[in-house]
Write a structure and sequence with these properties.
The protein is α+β, with helices and mostly antiparallel strands. It has six helices and seven strands. The strands form two sheets. A five-stranded mixed β-sheet has the order 2-4-5-7-6. Strands 1-3 form a two-stranded antiparallel ribbon. A hairpin with a 3-residue loop joins strand 4 and strand 5. The longest helix is centred in the N-terminal third of the chain and has 53 residues. 22% of the residues are buried. The C terminus is likely disordered.
Length: 312
Amino acid sequence: MVSLNDLLENLLLLAPALAAALVVWERLRLRRVFNRLDDMLDQALQGRFREEVFDESHLSAVEARLAQYLAASAAGSRSLEEEKETIKSLIADISHQTKTPIANVLLYAQLLGEQPLSQEGRDCLTALEGQTEKLRSLIEALVKISRLETGVLVLHPRPASLSPVLEDCAAQFAPRAAEKGVALSLAPAENDTAVFDPKWTAEAVCCLLDNAVKYTPSGGAVTLQAISYELFCRINVTDTGPGISEEEQPKIFQRFYRAASDAEGVGIGLYLARQIAEGQGGYIRVFSKPGKGTRFSLFLPRIQTHTAGFRP
């Protein structure tokens, strides 16, 4: 028979091996749990997480609670995507449904203008055409802003030269400036590479140019210029208009805000320009004094610093 002492000695000899086996088993168990947790997070980041049935006797309470949290987050993400699709469809409907009536009003106004009218009738027709064009501009601007704010449209900045964009913008506004008697010039620039979305940056620059030409009186001047720095490229739109008071400057970027002036507008342009700038990791500053003109500066990063896109 095996004596008690022999049994104890054998157990003592086996104890290290048993302890080592327990340590290995526990580490493998923890590794499996962490692997499952890691897989849950990967699925959540990819937007395809689905809650499964977990055996609480094998998984930790932390794992079960994480699964519940991720399942709720996934459901919220799906709901958000559905709402975004609904808004996208609504914006598309508004854009489509308003284009035809406005185009028809302008067409009938043009046909009416070909008929003999009294001076009073001519004045009413001119007002009708002006207000219809204003309505069309307002709807187009609101559609653009809504698409950006809801994430329907995402900005895609990439490294490129600003010169082609600025040249196109200057060419677009040259006829309007000449008609008003405003000298519009584009200053030459060197090394004007920045990280930006060409289409939407052109939209922002055009908003600034439209504002400058609109408020600059006949005989004045508007200058478009790009200046490069180490981290940013600065687009200046400078005019010789009436200027903006210090009290009014914080308000001009608000939606629908219009300064007290006879100039036409709907108060959307500067708001849209700022949203576009911020969506690309940039910003806009205004420098102005009453009677001294105004300079709007659009700063765009020269280095890709984040995944771009509009964030409400």
